[in-house]
Write a structure and sequence with these properties.
Blueprint lengths: L7 H10 L4 H24 L2 H23 L9 H16 L11
């Protein structure tokens, strides 16, 4: 039976469990950094190519981490909004070194 998460607080531990490998988390971090850089570039230049690059960067690095390294299906397929928000939460946690870039979480 599929689990239904009512809050981000309930969903986040599941989200992290889908990002057990440091390689996957690091690829997410790279992709999210490029998304943020692209958004800032779009806002400062109003060049729409930077806006178009956001999902390319975000999904490419995340899916590479999941399909090649983690060997699982990205949570965004089933929980798109919660996954997007939790990606930024994980990014912030990694930026503050509360979640490691290397090693397994389990």
């Amino acid at each position: 039976m599929d689990t239904e998460f009512k809050t981000l607080k309930e969903f986040y531990p599941y989200y992290l469990s889908e990002h057990n490998l440091g390689t996957c988390r690091t690829l997410h971090f790279i992709g999210t950094s490029l998304v943020i850089l692209s958004l800032v570039s779009f806002i400062t230049t109003l060049n729409f190519k930077f806006l178009i690059l956001c999902p390319v960067f975000g999904y490419f690095f995340a899916w590479l981490g999941h399909f090649v390294f983690e060997k699982n299906r990205p949570a965004t397929f089933k929980y798109p909004f919660k996954s997007l928000v939790c990606d930024f939460i994980m990014y912030w946690d990694m930026l503050r070194f509360e979640i490691p870039f290397k090693g397994n979480l389990k």
